[in-house]
Amino acid sequence: MPMDGMTAGFAARELDGLLKTGRIDRIMQPEKDTVILVVRAGGENHRLLLCASPNNARCHLTRASFPNPLEPPVMCMMLRKQLLGGRILSVSQVQGDRVVHVDIDTVDEMGDHVLRRLILEIMGRHSNLILTDGEGRIIEAARHVSPEMNRVRQIQPGLIYEAPPAQDKLPPEEVTAEKLLERLSSLGDIPLHKALGQCVMGLSAVSAGELAFRVLQSGEDRSSNPEETAKRLADLISRLKDMQSPCVTEDEDGNCLDFYAFPYLSQPGGKRVNCPTLSDAMERYFGSRDQKDRLQQKSASMVRVLKTQIERCEKKLALQEEELSGAARMEEYRMMGDIINANLYQLKKGMSEVELDNFYDPQGGKIRIPMDIQLTPAQNAQRYFKKYQKARSARKTAAEQREKTLKELDYLEGALLDVGKCVGESELEEIRAELAKAGYVKRVTSRKQQRDLPKSRPYRYLSSDGIEIWVGKNSVQNERMTLSARPGETWLHAKDMPGSHVLIRHEGEIPENTLREAAILAAWYSKGQRSSGVPVDYTLKKYVKKPSGTPAGFVIYTNQHTLYMTVEPKDIQSLQLLEA
Prior knowledge:
By secondary structure, this protein is α+β, with helices and mostly antiparallel strands. It has 13 helices and 23 strands. Helix 3 crosses helix 6, helix 4 crosses helix 5 and helix 7 runs antiparallel to helix 9. The longest helix is centred in the middle third of the chain and has 50 residues.
């Protein structure tokens, strides 16, 4: 469900009812475009999230915790200076648009009561969060907009705030049957949902479609009785605020597909789950989605670097393979040199080619040998011996370089695979630190860029036999998890390919089902995820060693057995995940 004006209105009304007169006790800014106000209201603490993310802009109460930067951003410090201790006067929507005002009564440095207003503009990539004073002057904003960026509407501290350009549409509170009929009639013969979107403020295509669906006959997209339809629409829009009954829809695996302020009859897909508040519904929908989007944004540069380096390694490997292929003729060069030397008595300078007995051929055949007419036969023989020596050296060097390239390629592909397994910023930063140590990305040196992040934790699954299975998400976590395991625990890894370390947290005999489920996880969280017959080695942890000086997560092991696994997504979904 897009965060359109209609949904913003439901959210603002809910927040106003819960937070009015509440005191702002704490302010945090975990992201540049996200602010959290801890508000004491109604005898309990509420965490109001105001987010101006380009993809997930929204406002609702949240229970989630967010890591904060070691040093608060400028806007956070300004908000704390201006708003801490203030009381919320109201949370309101502006004329059905995607703009929400949070008005706050606070005390300035002189001890006088003053008005401060937080303005959340929910406008896609132009979304913003702006703090203004009682006169409408901008104090600070999440995104500054300079004249070079927008000549019509600038957002800069010190300027008077200008609302987004007004649209020639009816605000929901001003909708009447007469006004609606006039507007709809002027648009001609077009589907009702499209006409509604063009004449009523704040309706997305989905919301306009829902309103049209509720007033038209089944299967119709246009009205046969415009006057009656206008009356029904005006009545429906006037009753919207009383229709709040928040819910989410889920797929068969329990993943949240969408959220609604009230059940949308025109959107039947998925299982409907009722929620106590709209904030709860929005939290369920936006929580994992926003985190995933931010992780993708933060990992984009890392993914780009890894893909570039992998491409470089593949090109280098192709050249090394070509060198090795060329060096395969070295024995032929030595053989031709030997045959020329054995026949010097019958050769003369100036011959361009000779045909001689090949004493290396068990069948006693002949061989044609190209000659350089500028050289003597002996010099031609030496020329072939030099080619032999050069090819032998090239083969040795190319083989050594090829081995190094294969190891580097394996490391880079493993790192790229690890990025895809990240579910939190801790895992991402651990990968970044490893890549920085290896010289692929720059080290973070600025304290402002660093986060006081907790150590990441592996995936924790519970087998059908009630035994925990741990799966590492990156090389650092793999190493930490494996080296801290008990000697008798069973360790698994996809054979000869990048992948996660998997641990069965149990010593002694392992039930067959648990071993199979652990092997499923090892195959799935590896480069062979979508392949069939993925070989998975397993052995006791006491047989797993880490050679000194090797990269994080690199181990060698012995006494292994191998299972061959073909894994489908449903196999993973059937396993019980305790902690992601």
